[in-house]
Amino acid sequence: MQVKVIFGEENLTEDVPEDYTIKELLKKLEIPSETVVVKKNEAIVIEEELIQEGDTLEIIKVIFGG
Amino acid sequence: MNTCSKCGNQQIIIQKKHSGQNLCQECFIESINEKVLKDTRKYKLLEKGDKVLMALSGGKDSVVALHILNSLREKNIIDIVAVTIDEGIKGYREEGIEIAKANTRTLGIKHRVVSFKEYFGRTLDEMRGQDDTRQDDTRQDDTRRQGDTEPRHACTYCGVFRRWILNRVAQEEGATKIATGHNLDDETQSILMNYLEGNINNLIRIGPKSESRDERFTVKIKPLREIPEKEIGLYAIAADLNVHLAGCPYAGESFRREIGEFIKELSRDHPTIMYSTLRGFDKIKPILKKELTPKGNTGECRRCGEPSAGELCKACSFLEGWE
Ligand SMILES: [Zn+2]
Ligand SMILES: [Zn+2]
Fold first, then answer.
1. Report field, pTM of the whole predicted structure over 0.90
2. pLDDT of B168-210, one tens digit each?
3. Residue among B15, B229, B232 minimizing CB distance to A46
4. Neighbouring residues of B89: CB distance < 8 A, sequence distance ≥ 6
5. Dist CA B134 CA B157 (whole Å)
6. ipTM entry
7. Which CATH code, of 3.30.70.940, 3.10.20.30, 3.30.565.10, 3.30.450.20, is assigned to A2-61?
8. What is the whole-number distance in angstroms between the Cα of residue B30 and the centre of ligand 1?
9. How far is the CA of B138 from the centre of ligand 2 (A)?
10. Is the CB of B245 inside 8 Å of chain A's CB atoms?
11. Which CATH code fits B48-321?
């Protein structure tokens, strides 16, 4: 299934399997989950949240190190 | 199904791994507000009538601290004036300044922007250009070890000059406290970093509230000291605050960053490690402080008049070195 991913300036379309979680998506995109807040269809969600067909996921980096 | 531990809402935004607590957006914001105000009382960070100088970079930490402290200002318990320091980091600081302005405008808080350039005649970018690798003996502390011939990190200058400006602006504004946005991650990093470097003078100064014997130093407070950085980021997004989300281009050079990554790595499997590091340190600190506080009176820097252990304060010793 396809989902939309917004990460900073990037707008991506990702193909993910059924029953995929935010955590798995972040891992796939190689984004450390402890540095971001994720919104699914504009609502903040936890890492364990399941992704559904057509979802829009906004990944907001909040920790930059240093 | 996970539901909010406080109100039963099914839309939770955080699962606190160390406590097992789940919170919805509203209850999370409320819990952070409460925790920060509770710590403020517990550590006696503020007193009625305090005039607080908020060091406001525009980043998430200082913006969140400003908004939470503003609740005390709205109740006429304290007054706040915000200051943003323009270190002169091209391509980075400009946006933070605009965001700091927007926040203070919204809240109706007095705001000043002060720069390294106006106080020291040079920007941080220029200070780095002037750096060289020579050894010098102007430092009274032990941050520079023997045989260490590497140029200083931008962070060293930035820290020294920022502290100087904050103290000076606090005097100019008649502020009784200086508040900063330091969070649990920052504090844990400082503890580990100073310990590993053997920098005991700096180690024993770490705490929620500065305790200088010298009245010419305005007391500094850290209201967010027990809030993990990740939760401050989450708060900023959940409360829809206008924050500058960007990393300082110089941060990558620092030992602090290495330590920060190390602790974050550890925290993944040991979610309470930052809390326990802080708790343990806070317990041994009074003993360390009693045994190890340097003796001797603090004099005055002959150049700027700020309190200083040596003839020159650290800021002025850098400045003289460049002349
Ligand atoms: Zn709730
Ligand atoms: Zn001086």
1. yes
2. 999 999 999 999 999 999 999 999 999 999 999 999 999 999 9
3. B15
4. B123, B124, B125, B248, B249, B250
5. 16
6. 0.96
7. 3.10.20.30
8. 9
9. 12
10. yes
11. 3.40.50.620
